[in-house]
Amino acid sequence: MGTKIIGTGSCLPETIVTNDDLAKIMDTSDEWISTRTGIKERHLAKDETTAGMSAAAARKAMENAGVTAQDIDLIIVGTVTADHITPSCACEVQAAIGADNAVAFDINAACSGFMFALNIAHAYLQTGACKTALIIGAETLSKIMDWDDRSTCVLFGDGAGAAVLQKSDRGGLLAFDQGSDGAKGSVLSCADRTNNNPLVKTPRELGYVHMDGQEVYRFAVTTVPQSLTRTIEAAGLSVQDIDYFALHQANIRILQAVAKRLKVSEERLPVSLDHCGNISAASVPILLDEMNRKGLLKPGMKVAMSGFGGGLTWASAVLEW
Ligand code: UT7
Asked: Is 111 a catalytic residue?
């Protein structure tokens, strides 16, 4: 018995900010951002919230899957930028879409969040703990960026992507690989509030994203090809059997390096980072939704997916569409 993605949806904030727009407010240029990252523009939230975008993506995914909110009995949101510490984003989505029968919770695996959610939902479905799962990757990263740090803030965007999953007789998820390396967590971090109570008085300073870009780059171009290769082998397939690689959208140079190491043509690695930037947990489901709506994904096709980032964390999956 496999686990199948039966519908996808996504939502991006209305406001588009181009590289030229950023160059008006900081010392950067379209030339630097485009050549180093492949990013041309990103959507940034004004009135949009993480839960609001998640609910909008969820509604589209449910419509695409042909299920109603009443059918959903599990909601998992991968996010590091929920609107509240509690309630969770998943509980806010549950309320917004009226999925009264669902168990709902968030997970934090940064850019691997959607992929971790996929594996958790797979386990729930396969044990019979749920029948129809809604998994979401959603971020309002712009609120945790240091807009004075041009080396990080230009890379990221806001948005949400969702998928509906059910058990299937054939195909679906064929193999999964997942890992974490907490010892290297400091290369991509964002501090939360610190202890502040009658015993410890500290200023309430909220943290912003801090990244050692070159370390993250090295981690990505080594770990992702290894993880993908393991997963493809575990699925009993070869790299050449994979129709598409739907990878976390961090940097075009990372995608090119992965393609080179796997010896596959870049056309098999669809791109959304040019118009979305890096949206952490939302990257993979937004890309998947774009591929789905463009009609790229046909039944029986093999898709390898991979997320990687803060934690450090990574996760790959091979699925038969
Ligand atoms: O989900 C995972 C998220 N993280 C990633 O994907 C990050 C992976 N890493 C990268 O993509 C790259 O390391 C970056 C795109 C972040 C940076 O590229 P780089 O080639 O490693 O550049 P760098 O940090 O070595 O900086 C080169 C130069 C520096 O100037 P000097 O010291 O050579 O004069 C920077 O100050 O580029 C400068 N620079 C900029 N210039 C214009 C840094 N950011 C900018 C900017 N605009 N936005």
From this structure: yes
Structural domain boundaries, residue 84 = 2-169
Q: 37 C-alpha to center of ligand 1: Å?
A: 9
Q: Is the domain of 157 the same as that of 205?
A: no
Chain-wide mean pLDDT for the chain?
96
Query: 123 and 48, same structural domain?
Result: yes
Q: How many domains does the chain have?
A: 2
pLDDT of residue 203: 76
Residue ranges of the chain whose pLDDT lies below 70: 1
Q: Give the closest residue (by CA) to ligand 1 atom 2.
A: 309
Whether residues 137 and 114 share a domain: the answer is yes
Cα distances (Å, whole numbers) of residue 148 to 19, 152, 177, 188, 193: 15, 9, 36, 17, 20
CA of 156 to the centre of ligand 1 (A): 13
In sequence order, what are the residues at sequence separation of 6 or more whose Cβ sits closer than 8 angstroms to the Cβ of residue 254? Answer: 217, 220, 221, 224
- CATH number, domain of 126, equals 3.40.47.10
Distance 139 CA to ligand 1 centre (A): 22
Task: Examine the fold and report which residue of 107, 142, 169 is the final residue of a domain before the chain moves on.
Answer: 169
Q: What is the pLDDT of residues 91-109, one digit of tens each?
A: 999 999 999 999 999 999 9
Residue 1 is predicted with a pLDDT of 66
Pairwise CA distance, residues 57 & 7, whole Å: 11
Catalytic member of 64, 119, 278, 292: 278
Ligand 1: residues whose CB is within 6 Å? 28, 32-33, 36-37, 111, 150-151, 154, 211, 213-214, 216-217, 250-251, 278, 309
Residue where a domain terminates, one of 169, 201, 236: 169
